[in-house]
Write a structure and sequence with these properties.
With 211 residues, the chain is an alpha+beta fold. The chain has one domain. It has four helices and twelve strands. A twelve-stranded antiparallel β-barrel has the order 1-2-3-4-5-6-7-8-9-10-11-12. It is globular and about 40 Å long.
């Protein structure tokens, strides 16, 4: 079953568990989260606060708590996304653009820096298909200040109560996924995985994110 389904608007925000592990809650309506992610990696480093994101095997569960995807973020090389049994679902590579591929290596989408100026505390990215056609936008949010400005509009669209990221030193506080149309599988869930790769793995998908 797809995590994203037919949703075209997703608001995902980071937080922390008592163990200090980062969490990522994906919402697309007022009925509860469609997915929840949890940071993986060195458990002692996470517990002591030394591991504030980076390489690790990060888990995405559906709204019922069932494990669906594992996002294997690495400091070097591509990020691999698998199912709970270890079968590869897709991969995300970094370069002059972010590239999302399926299990066979076929390109499903690319992520590029949006040339239009965005808010200073965001990284706006464009999502394009393999033919270059626009599929939507990814807005990576680096500061809770962005949410204080955008909540009223975005929460009205989704029918959510206003909520802000936890007031902790979290590197990336969330992202917003805005698709022009429902995404086919596995692309839809790989886009959610890309968000976890950024928020947990601190992956710089594009040159603008690495500058």
């Amino acid at each position: 079953m797809s995590l994203l389904g037919s949703h075209t608007l997703v608001d995902a925000r980071t937080g922390r568990k008592v163990s200090n592990a980062l969490t990522l809650t994906y919402r697309s309506d007022a009925q509860g989260p469609i997915a929840v992610g949890r940071q993986g990696g060195n458990k002692l480093g996470i517990l002591l606060g030394f591991k504030n994101g980076g390489s690790g095997d990060h888990v995405l569960r559906d709204g019922e708590g069932i494990e669906r995807l594992v996002v294997c973020s690495r400091n070097e090389g591509p990020t691999t996304i698998t199912d709970p049994a270890g079968a590869v679902v897709g991969a995300i590579t970094r370069g002059d653009r972010g590239t999302i591929t399926d299990a066979g290596g076929a390109i499903l989408a690319t992520l590029t820096d949006d040339p239009a100026p965005g808010a200073s505390d965001t990284w706006p990215l464009l999502i394009n298909g393999p033919d270059g056609a626009r599929l939507g936008a990814f807005v990576i949010v680096r500061s809770t200040a962005y949410y204080s400005l955008a909540d009223d509009v975005f929460d009205h669209v989704l029918g959510l109560e206003t909520h802000t990221a936890a007031p902790l030193p979290i590197p990336i506080v969330g992202f917003q996924l805005r698709l022009d149309a429902p995404a086919p599988q596995p692309l839809g869930d790989l886009l959610l995985a890309a968000g976890a790769d950024v928020c947990f793995g601190l992956s710089g998908l594009t040159p603008g994110m690495r500058s």
